Amino acid sequence: AHSMWIKYFFLRNKIVHKVSQLMHRREKVVVLAALRLLRACVGIKDEFYYTQITGSDAFAPVVQAFLANGEKYNMLNSAVLELFEYMKKENLRMLIKYSIEKFWDKLSGVEYVQSFRQLKLKHEQNLNNETMRMEGDEKTVLAEMRLSRMRKRRDGSMEKEEEDYFESDEGEDPGPSAPDPASNTQMDVSASMEMDVGEGEGVPVSASPSHAGTAVLLNSSSPLAMNPLVDYDLDDTGNSPPGQSTLYTKANAPPPVNGEDKPKES
User: Fold this and answer.
1) Which of 141, 167, 201, 222 has CA 20 to 30 A from 125's CA?
2) What is the pLDDT confidence band of residue 177, given thresholds at 50, 70 and 90?
C-alpha cells in the first residue's frame, strides 16, 4: 500500500522533475541531496521511476552539472560516475538507452574515464541482442505455425482455404474414367462361349464380322432368339453373304455334325 501511495505522490506532484531542477543550485549540499534522491529512484529498479526520469528528462541537469565540474575529483564527480557505473553493471536498458541517445554527443568528449564508452558499448550489445531476440521470436512463430498445420493435418482437420481447395474441381485429381454402362451390353467374343440368358436349351448364333469364327449360344426363349436384331432369310442358311450374322432357332437349326445327337425338344 505504501509503495502505491508514494508512486501516486511522485506522479501527482512531479517530484522527479522538481528534484532534478535542484541540480542547478549553487549550494553543493543541495545538489548532492538531489543527486542522492535520483540515485535512490534508479536503485529501486522499478519501471515507474524510470519512466518518470526519462519523461521529465531528469538526467539533463545531472550531465550539465557533471560537465561543468570538469575533471575535478570531488564528491559530485564521484557520485555521477557511480550512477552511470551502476546503470551499466545492472544493465538498466531503459536508462542506458535514454542516456546514450540523449547525451552521447556531450559525454563522448570525456576521455579521462572509460565509463561512458563502456556504457555505449553496453547499449550496442543490447540493441544486437534485441535484434536477435526479435528474429528468434519470428522463427519461433513460424515454427509454431508449421507445427500447428502439421497437427491439423494429422488430426484430419484443415483450414477453410484448404477445404475449399480440396472440395473444388481444380483440387481433384482426375482418376480413371468410369466404365460406360452401355459398353457392358456389348459382347466381346474371342472364342466359342455359352451365355445362360434363360431357361431351356441354347442355340448358336454366328458372330459379327469382326469376330468371325466364333459363336454364342442363346436360349430359344431369349428375346434375341425370338426377335432377331437383323431380319435375314433364315431359310437361306447356306448362301448367307459373307460377314453377315445368321440367327438359328430350334426350327431351322442345322443338322448335327459328326453323329452328334439332335437338339432335344423342349
Assistant:
1) 141
2) low
